[in-house]
Target: Methylglyoxal synthase
Amino acid sequence: MIEIPFTNATLPARKHIALVAHDHCKQHLLTWAKRHREALAEHALLATGTTGKLLQQQLGLEVTAMLSGPLGGDQQLGAWIAERKIDVLVFFWDPFEPQPHDPDIKALLRVAAVWNIPVACNESSADFLISSPLINLAHNHRIPDYGHYLQDRQS
Model:
């Protein structure tokens, strides 16, 4: 078993928030985002392809759109999380519909857990997350110390 050391990092006060929704959940995410537009406007927004375009049109806010999830957008977001370019993940996933890119979805959720970022997977948890006082504050959290891990592996 590999033992990964940890270190502390700080999520900035202005967060980079990734917004993702499966097809049957896009309208729920759009309704949620409209309700929380004012709070979301304080942060940088990212999304997978179609969701990003819809959010930009509906909210009138700048949204950095990746590829569509099934075409690699979930993996792009996962890479950005690992690079510490995404601070929060809001992912309205559909628990009733099988997804052809299910391994990518699991990988995205796994990397979010590895890098210890806040994750909301439904409307209720997203409400709690966006209304937390921590959403607008810098926040210290524990992350893998990958640099230290690499040094140990080379010794």
